[in-house]
Amino acid sequence: MTAREVVRELTGRGAVNVRQSGSHVRFVSACGRCATTVAMHPGDIKPGTLHAIEKDMAPCYGRGWLTR
Hints:
- The protein starts with a helix and ends in a 7-residue tail after the last helix.
- It is of the alpha+beta class and 68 residues long.
- Strands 1-2-3 form a three-stranded antiparallel β-sheet.
- The chain is globular and about 30 Å long.
- It has a single domain (3-61), classed as Metal Transport, Frataxin, Chain A, CATH 3.30.920.30.
- The longest helix has 15 residues, at 47-61.
- The chain has two helices and three strands.
């Protein structure tokens, strides 16, 4: 899964880009309880990083929200 695909999933669920520092973009859920950072690098995101993003947003979106 690429960074663009992750961003598409996040924004599709109502997450908002609150800031960017270089290639790292910070997203906050619509409810404001959850936040995560996505590195906008080319290629696929490593599985451990995807798991961390999914875990960060799980309280708002539910468990397994990012799996295909």
